[in-house]
Amino acid sequence: MFADHAKIYIRSGKGGDGHVSFRRELYVAAGGPDGGDGGKGGDIIFEVEKGLNTLGDFRHQRKYLAGDGEPGSRRKKHGKNGEDLVVKVPEGTLIYDEASGRLIADMSGTNLRQVILPGGKGGVGNMHFATSTMQVPKYAKPGQPGRELNVILELKVIADVGLIGFPSVGKSTLISAVSNARPKIAAYHFTTLTPVLGVVDRGDGNGFVMADIPGLIEGAADGVGLGHDFLRHIERCKLLLHLVDISAAEGRDPLNDIAVINEELQKYSTALSEKPQILVGSKLDAADAEAASKVRAYAGAQGLRYLEISAVTHEGLDALLSCIEEELEKLPRETTVYEPDFVYESDANADLPFTVTREEDGVFAVEGPRIEKMLGYTNLDSEKGFDFFQRFLKDSGVLNKLHEAGIEEGDTVRMYGWYFDFYE
Ligand SMILES: Nc1nc2c(ncn2[C@@H]2O[C@H](COP(=O)(O)OP(=O)(O)OP(=O)(O)O)[C@@H](O)[C@H]2O)c(=O)[nH]1
Ligand SMILES: [Mg+2]
Fold first, then answer.
1. Ligand 1 atom 27: the closest Cα is on which residue?
2. In this predicted structure, what is the pLDDT of residue 1?
């Protein structure tokens, strides 16, 4: 079974603790502090592996833990760093934080390797704490904890051109005729069950990548058909080839087919429905005169780019490929890469202070750099942003402080210019 979706747990390594010890040598009564530093925790790193094209491996392993740093030891010995863990994913994998739904990284384009969770820093040993007034420091710093997240991996393949259309219109036959892809072809609906990528070689190092996805049917965008899940695989395509069967073999009206497919795209997203399309009349060798002339007239009236092909006899294929190349020339070269919007509450922020004060008018004011930072990267108007905010109040200790200050249900809280009524 093809997997383009997975949920896993990742955790970076804890930093090793700093060590407390004192030099002990023969004839030296009380030596100075010599406790070494702890090692750094291992990172969780994601890396694109060429040739991988599903997330199937994540079905078998769901926990990914980097190594912990070792503690420091006597004689200023530094603890060993924890081992990094490199998670291999196919190009085009998006990594989301499960809790907030925010995008952590898009493993595509130039982003082929990224540290997703850095390991905790090692704590420094007591050898660093000797001063003129404190010659026997009995403390060292503990290592920083690792970080953990439940993440959702989602594959959105990288292709220039996407094939769309009803089942059995000949999408797979076309990709087989023009590229190195060899998907299954058969006379029943939903023969193709997983996206297939093919490289179309145009010589002299030119070419493009084509994606064949399962056929769409009415209702697919509502999750009724098979197609819905697969529409995301054409989201990054620059150009869509919309295949319509002009053989009328299945007794449908081709103009209705075109409208239904366009509606599916529209229901899925405006971005998808606005992608440039080339309309392709398929099965030219078996064309029904009436159906074909209807589509021709429609394309003419709408001013669409329209070509007719037979993927079986290869008639019209060269013209189609030239047309695709020409259209691609007009479009931006770069792959669509999605902008991450996830922010890990960094350790630096966690150390920043905040205060809770009850003002004269009874409003509880929460202020300080910690709060300012959080408000800076949180969109409180969105549902996800608000969920994050609520967790922040709890995790950061703001909630406890509010209780200590005597807050009750219905009281007003102010965070800079932002007011809300307090309810738990
Ligand atoms: N006569 C004729 N038959 C074709 C042509 N292209 C495809 N077919 C036939 O149409 C049937 C469906 O072809 P596929 O390529 O599997 O269609 P598909 O669009 O990939 O279908 P799904 O994967 O089910 O969505 C097969 O029996 C093909 O042999 C063509 O150009 N001419
Ligand atoms: Mg197919």
1. 187
2. 47
Q: Kindly state if the Cβ of 186 falls inside 6 Å of ligand 1.
A: yes
List of residues 6+ apart from 181 with CB closer than 8 A: 175, 196, 197, 198, 199, 210, 212
As a whole number of angstroms, the distance between CA 216 and CA 228 comes to: 8
Is the distance from the beta carbon of residue 182 to the nearest atom of ligand 1 less than 6 Å?
no
Cβ–ligand 1 contact at 53 (below 6 Å): no
Residue 208 belongs to domain with CATH number: 3.40.50.300
Query: Which residues on neighbouring strands pair with residue 7, listed in sequence order?
Result: 152
Residue 169 lies in a domain: yes
Which residue is closest in CA terms to ligand 1's atom 24?
190
Angstrom distance (rounded) from CA 102 to CA 152: 10
pLDDT digits (tens, 9 = 90+) for 213-270: 887 775 555 555 555 678 888 988 999 999 999 998 888 899 999 998 998 899 888 9
Domain of residue 397: give its range: 347-421
Q: Pick the residue whose CA is nearest to atom 11 on ligand 1.
A: 187
Q: How confident is the model at residue 349 (pLDDT cuts 50, 70, 90)?
A: low
CA of 191 to the centre of ligand 2 (A): 5
- Least Cα distance to 213 among 256, 249, 246, 181 occurs for 181
Count of Cβ atoms closer than 10 Å to residue 348 Cβ: 8
Mode of pairing for the β-strands spanning 5-11 and 148-155:
antiparallel
| HSE (side-chain half, CA atoms, 13 Å) at 274 | 3
Q: Whose CA is nearest to atom 9 of ligand 1?
A: 170
What average pLDDT does the structure give for the chain?
A: 87
Mean pLDDT (whole number) for 312-317:
96
Distance CA 277, CA 300 (A): 14
Domain boundary among 127, 155, 183: 155
Q: How far is the CA of 71 from the centre of ligand 1 (A)?
A: 64
Ligand 1 closest atom vs CA 167: 25
Give the total residue count for the chain.
Answer: 424
> Does 167 contact ligand 1 (Cβ within 6 A)?
yes
| Tokens linked to 32 | 């100075």
pLDDT tier, 143 (very low <50, low <70, confident <90, very high otherwise): confident
Answer yes or no: is pLDDT of 387 > 90: no
Residues 223 and 318 in one domain: yes
